[in-house]
């Protein structure tokens, strides 16, 4: 039953929709936590510490964080695999280019695939930079996320990579939320306007919020 669901086109679209919503939920929570950087190193470092002890005393040190990481990783993998397989099916179903001119698609629709690739590469860089410290530009300090973030956004390439990725994320969220709503049956002629407004609002708030962090470092608001 589960295998038949996964192998069906509708099943893959549903998996994409559900995992996409999980990731959007994570982005919203992640942004709220990241905004603490504007309240100084004490607040932000305390937030970083809380991530490692959340769920205590029921959960052991970092168990809550690792549960969240595993759920998010599973969502990312399922989302990416579904997207790739649906793309391959679409190509096989239409092996020849359209003879007639297709209706113009939105920028988000036309860049979803490349946006996904950009975000995938960004996630790898982001983890290596601020989680493991492998590619960190300064002296990576375990337990001091505030200084690590400031170090990263004190370099031009750190800012460029992050801002480009956040712009791609915004476009991905805008189109992805709308597509998920349609796939999961939330859309109809009475709710479409509201769903589009929510998709636009999510994309704008998330993009502006995340970009405000490197801008804050560049302008000296965060230092």
Automatic annotation (TrEMBL):
UniProt keyword annotations, A-Z: Membrane, Transmembrane, Transmembrane helix
Superkingdom, natural source: Bacteria
The keyword Flavoprotein belongs to this UniProt entry's keyword annotation: no
UniProt-listed InterPro entries: Cytochrome_b-558, SQR/QFR_C/D
Transmembrane spans: 14-33, 63-86, 107-128, 156-173, 194-217
Name of the molecule in the record: Succinate dehydrogenase
Source organism (scientific name): Streptomyces endocoffeicus
Native organism taxonomy: Bacteria, Bacillati, Actinomycetota, Actinomycetes, Kitasatosporales
């Amino acid at each position: 039953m589960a295998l038949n669901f996964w192998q069906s086109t509708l099943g893959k679209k549903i998996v994409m929709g559900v995992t996409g919503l999980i990731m959007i939920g994570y982005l919203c929570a992640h942004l709220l936590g990241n905004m603490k950087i504007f309240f100084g190193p004490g607040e932000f470092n305390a937030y970083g510490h809380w991530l490692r002890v959340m769920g205590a005393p029921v959960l052991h040190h970092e168990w809550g964080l690792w549960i969240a990481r595993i759920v998010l990783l599973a969502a990312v993998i399922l989302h990416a695999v579904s997207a790739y397989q649906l793309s391959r099916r679409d190509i096989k179903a239409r092996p020849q280019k359209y003879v007639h001119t297709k209706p113009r698609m939105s920028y988000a629709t036309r860049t979803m695939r490349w946006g996904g690739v950009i975000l995938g590469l960004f996630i790898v860089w982001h983890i290596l930079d601020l989680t493991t410290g492998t590619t960190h530009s300064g002296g990576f300090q375990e337990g001091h996320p505030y200084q690590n973030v400031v170090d990263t956004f004190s370099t031009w390439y750190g800012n460029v990579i992050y801002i480009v990725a956040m712009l791609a994320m915004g476009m991905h969220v805008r189109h992805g939320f709308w597509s998920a709503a349609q796939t999961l049956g939330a859309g109809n002629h009475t709710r479409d306007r509201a769903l589009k407004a929510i998709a636009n609002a999510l994309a704008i708030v998330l993009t502006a919020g995340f970009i405000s962090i490197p801008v804050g470092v560049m302008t000296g608001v965060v230092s």
